[in-house]
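Question (not urgent): is this output format expected?
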Amino acid sequence: MGVNLPNQITLARLALAVVFFALLARFDINRIDRQRWILDACLVIFVIAAGTDWLDGYLARKRNLVTAFGRVLDPFVDKVLVGGTFVFLAGPAFRDAGGGQVTHLAPWMVVLILSRELLVTGLRGFSESRGEAFGANVYGKAKMIIQSVTAAALLLIVAHFDDPARSTTADTIMVAMVWLTVVATTASMVSYLYQARNVLADAAS
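Got this back:
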């Protein structure tokens, strides 16, 4: 039996993520004048991969094509795409000649983002193993949107707002979006811990 259409879309998103990371791995902020096209290409790929996140799930539900494979693969691709993007954006490729991180992403912020994903994955698996439903809530959905918008905005700003006359405003926007992402990620993590409180309490007793 072949892979159904929703899962094909999810696999295509994973393939886009691989291309995205391969391009981003070639980027060096200190060669921005010659490599601006890399960020432009990455931005287009990221928007397509992140923007079609809803499509595979929608088709699976509408056509009654929900599978265990898709239930595992779809959130996995989301985590790979978004988590991997922030790892790259906080990496040495985005550190200028003076050692400053142009995206304003600190390593601890990326650790927080990845830790949240690991925690929620663990809570979901543990809850469902005990027969408790553990669906996505509004905080989780808002977190995903904010993270995706922030990642896309950072790629765009770094690529096209490096002119000194605009750099102050661009920096302010990046800092605000990075901290909004941190707040949204933390709020989402707390909300899922609260959602799983009964299962965790039963397991601890």
